[in-house]
Amino acid sequence: MVNTKADKEKIYEYLREIVDPEIPVLSIMDMGIVRDLILHDDEVEVVITPTYTGCPAMDMISMQIRMHLSSYGFPKNKVTMVLSPAWTTEWMTEEGKKKLKAYGIAPPNPRQQGCDEKLFAEAEAVQCPHCDSWHTHRVSEFGSTACKALYQCDDCKEPFDHFKCH
Amino acid sequence: MTPLIKYLLHLADNTLILSQRNSEWCGHGPVLEQDIAITNISLDLLGQARNLYSYAATLIGGEATEDSLAYLRKEREFRNCLLVEQPNGDWAQTILRQYCFSQYQYALYQELLNSKDPQLAAIVEKSIKEVAYHLRWSSEWVIRLGDGTEESHRRMLKAIEELWAYTGELFEAADYEKDLQQEGIAADLEKIKQEWQLKTEAIFAEATLPMPRNVFVQTGGKQGIHTEQLGFILTELQYMQRAYPGAKW
Ligand SMILES: [Zn+2]
Q1: Confidence bin at A7 (pLDDT 50/70/90)
Q2: Between chains, do B44 and A54 touch, taking CB under 8 Å as contact?
Q3: Do B126 and A115 touch (CB under 8 A)?
Q4: Ligand 1 centre distance from Cα of residue A139 (Å)
Q5: What's the structural domain count of chain B?
Q6: What is the four-CA torsion angle of B41, B47, B53, B58, rounded to 10 degrees?
Q7: Is residue B248 part of a domain?
Q8: Which residues contact B20 (CB under 8 A, 6 or more apart)?
Q9: How many CB atoms lie within 10 A of CB B243?
Q10: Interface test with B, best of A53, A59, A148, A151 (most B CBs within 10 A)
């Protein structure tokens, strides 16, 4: 395989087609979990990092990357998992945040709030992804998956998931 | 078995067994949101266990995998603290167990961020944000129940009575911890104990709960000597792999 920049960009494009199985509007590139792409002489190595340690989507994502690259003509490929530096929602792309909102999930706020040890802290202000109101309240700090909290809008009354800061 | 492998198994067993205990609440939580919370915590702990077991397995080599370490070791080979194997009891007992463990784990992981073992430090760096969440959640619940109704306060007192004898073991260094502490890989448990007591006194004061003094300390878990509870937990946890060796989804 020729180790050129063009090849890398091509592969990044392929990786952009792989989505998070639990949030199918976000690609793994949008999530910021692809940390590196290494072109060895005869092998493609994709370095990824987990969002949460117990995230069950990671095994599936690894498998999808491998199958996807094989189907694009890179049968010799491997996925390596790194833990440090630890993933943070700050690595999510702006485009990814827009896609999340359009999907009905409030994206993580640009500046991290409410991640400290302070007890009974006021819930983070989160904008309703349906009607844009900031008049919302947190129903539960833990939601349908490890990365989300449950909110409800006080104006349109819709419940919604918030991708919490991490 | 090297001290590092023993230490990794100790850390991993703590998180696996507490994860298994918390997961018993699945579908039985007092309200839906808290059912989700405790099972989310369970999932985080399981994730930590997987990272620690995987790392231990690479050091052990041969046929060892994260699965063989979780599913095929016997009771006496588990090195978890006695605290995490104690039964769920009522919500107060589960909350207190989680609080005591999370406060300890948070202080411990803050120290282990500087561990001279880079892979252990990386696992800890990945996990500590989740632990901060568990600590905040369980601290709030200790205060809510302690400073709640007469009934919730009474139940917290009972939980303290049930569990306190098992908290001291968290801070008693096993031989492998002492060895690794000298090498800068494991943490100084004396320092963690002071931090834990200081923070717990503050939380208990806010929760209007008395801080027990001079309680008998029950130990053994770190060396594989467990209470009768662990056998039952492993019977359930390991059943499938014992009955159908190598079974896959
Ligand atoms: Zn709304």
Answers
A1: confident
A2: yes
A3: no
A4: 14
A5: 1
A6: -160
A7: no
A8: B42, B233, B236, B237
A9: 8
A10: A53
A86 to B47: CB separation less than 8 angstroms, yes or no? no
Ligand 1 centre to CA of B153 (Å) is: 38
d(CA A40, CA A78): 11
Position A131: which residue type? C
Interchain contact A86–B (C-beta under 8 A): yes
Kindly state the average pLDDT of the residues A85-105: 93
Residue B101: CATH number of its domain? 1.20.1260.10
CATH 3.30.300.130 maps onto chain A at: 5-81
Residue of A63, A83, A116 to mutate when probing chain B, most B C-beta within 10 A = A83
The reported pLDDT for the residue numbered A19 is 93
Residue type, position A123, single letter:
A
Q: Which amino acid is residue B56, in one-letter code? A: A
What is the A150 CA–ligand 1 centroid distance (Å)? 13
Helix (H, G, I), strand (E, B) or coil at A88: coil
Residue A57 confidence (pLDDT) above 90: no
pTM for the model: 0.91
Q: Which residues of A touch B123 (CB under 8 A)?
A: 83
- CB-count burial class (<10 Å; 0-12, 13-18, 19+) for A34: buried
CATH fold for the domain made of A5-81? GMP Synthetase; Chain A, domain 3 (3.30.300)
Q: Is A166 on the interface with B (CB under 8 A)?
A: yes
Instruction: List Cβ<8 Å contacts ≥24 apart for B148-152.
Output: B152/B92
The model's confidence at residue A109, banded by pLDDT at 50, 70 and 90, is confident
Which residues, at least 6 apart from B132, have a Cβ–Cβ distance to it below 8 Å? A115, A116, A117, B106
What average pLDDT does the structure give for chain A?
Answer: 88
Total beta-carbon pairs less than 8 A apart between chain A and chain B: 72
Check CB contact under 8 Å for B132 and A52.
no
ipTM over 0.90: no
What range does the domain containing B58 cover? 3-243
Give the mean model confidence (pLDDT) for residues B41-54: 96
Taking the CA of residue B29 and the nearest CA in chain A, the distance in Å comes to: 13
What distance in Å separates the CA atoms of residue A9 and residue A37, rounded to the nearest whole number?
10
